[in-house]
């Protein structure tokens, strides 16, 4: 897929959200940018990073650097997740389920990007309670970190 940046040979990056933040000060407006980035190798490793800077490119670079340092391993069985998982993180409730071969990723918003870069090809899921992409991203990472191969 061409929409993912490929600077490192082993990791692919996808910018999920860029937000312009303006703070009122006595001297005027203080404008910064924050970037949310997902990094993965499509073989079971994925990480997210949130970077802030005065301009967009440094914010993206900070986010990529943080994501690479804080990657988690996602267990994958038959190109799907090993079992169902339910997670509550802040206002977001996440439900992820394994799916049979050929189903594809039946998930919405940032879940598709994270699972795709983790290497999961078949899964279904639902996000309830929050439309905030940053909170949903952290909730999905929490759900993926709870996955186990053996009970």
UniProtKB/TrEMBL annotation:
It comes from the Bacteria. SUPFAM superfamilies: dsRNA-binding domain-like, Ribosomal protein S5 domain 2-like. Residues 11-74 form the S5 DRBM domain. GO terms for molecular function: RNA binding; structural constituent of ribosome. PROSITE patterns: S5_DSRBD. It holds the Pfam family Ribosomal_S5_C. GO terms for biological process: translation. Gene3D superfamilies: 3.30.160.20, 3.30.230.10. One of its GO terms (cellular component) is ribonucleoprotein complex. Keywords: Ribonucleoprotein, Ribosomal protein. Belongs to the universal ribosomal protein uS5 family. This is Small ribosomal subunit protein uS5. It comes from Candidatus Roizmanbacteria bacterium GW2011_GWA2_34_18.
């Amino acid at each position: 897929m061409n929409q993912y940046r490929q600077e490192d040979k082993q990791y692919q990056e996808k910018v999920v959200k860029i937000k312009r933040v303006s703070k009122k000060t006595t001297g005027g407006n203080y404008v910064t940018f924050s970037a949310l980035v997902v990094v993965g190798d499509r073989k079971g490793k994925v990480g997210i990073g949130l970077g802030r800077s005065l301009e967009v490119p440094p914010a993206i670079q900070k986010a990529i650097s943080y994501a690479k340092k804080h990657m988690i391993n996602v267990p994958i069985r038959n190109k799907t997740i090993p079992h169902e998982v339910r997670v509550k993180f802040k206002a977001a409730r996440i439900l992820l389920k394994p799916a049979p071969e050929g189903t594809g990723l039946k998930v919405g918003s940032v879940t598709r990007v994270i699972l795709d870069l983790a290497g999961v090809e078949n899964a279904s899921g639902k996000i309830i309670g929050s439309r905030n992409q940053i909170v949903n991203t952290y909730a999905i990472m929490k759900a993926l970190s709870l996955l186990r191969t053996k009970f």
